[in-house]
Amino acid sequence: MHTTHTIPLPGRAPLILGQTPLVMGILNVTPDSFSDGGQHNLLDSALAHARQMIAEGADIIDVGGESTRPGSEPVGVQEELDRVMPVIDALVADGIGVPLSIDTYKPLVADQAIQAGATIINDVHGLQGAPQMAEVAALHDVPVIAMHWQKDRDTTRPLFDDMQDYFTHSIALAERAGMGRDGLILDPGFGFGKSLAENYQLLAGFLAACPQQFPILIGTSRKSMIGKLLDNTPDQRLAGTIATTVLGYINGGHIFRVHDVRANRDALRVAQATLYGPPAGL
Ligand code: 9MG
Prior knowledge:
The strands form two sheets. The chain has an eight-stranded parallel beta sheet with strand order 8-7-6-5-4-3-10-9, with helices on one face. The protein contains nine helices and ten strands. It has helices spanning 39-55, 77-93, 107-116, 132-140, 159-177, 196-205, 224-230, 238-250, 261-276; strands at residues 5-9, 12-17, 22-28, 60-64, 100-103, 120-123, 144-147, 184-187, 217-218, 255-258. The chain is of the alpha/beta class. It is 42% helix and 16% strand. It binds 9-methylguanine (9MG). 9-methylguanine (9MG) binds next to strand 7.
């Protein structure tokens, strides 16, 4: 069953995280994200894609300018800003109706994105990559999605113990910087530094790996934990993704970061009606 959390957002209605799952649509703004190439085309395609995800029921749009896929090259601050800022500016000018999150582990990028209108930081380094990240979040009073990604992990130690310690450290960093206790959303970090067996062990019981009283974001969409099992390519992983989304919801997840908004949204509606009953009036 789902714990309920109210997450304040600057200048917007708060996120209510409880029985009703939220869908976060992924908007990657990397040169390989939209195949037709060129800066202008990239911006147009990104805007069209964001609008489509909102029409399909996305509650949040997550804008990212650096791929974290295995083998991807990191990009510099300026390059990342050049990718994400025109998109954020255009989405804000467009009067985007849903909150924007900025997918970055770089405090400078987070700071600029928030000044332009993003209201959530999605940090795959869980506030532990750069000491200024928690300060940026506290300064602007925005929530942070703190993802578990323990590089060079001691794999002889149980994963869940490792994750509890990691999140305890993220929470301490948030508190030290003056972020409110309702400013953190925890994320198990599916696919980041975990074996196939660990990813599935985590999907079955991630609440035991996360300190209590925090909302949880689940990001499994099209990941290799599905592809390795089914021996398929990312574009063939929708059915597998939906299975992980539904299991993630039943097991206590609140937000689902996905590529295919409509299909995951529909699956979550069915899952919610099964756990809590259909909406009144239907
Ligand atoms: C950027 N990114 C890629 N995978 C992710 C995941 O699982 N969670 C979050 N928060 N961000 C992710």
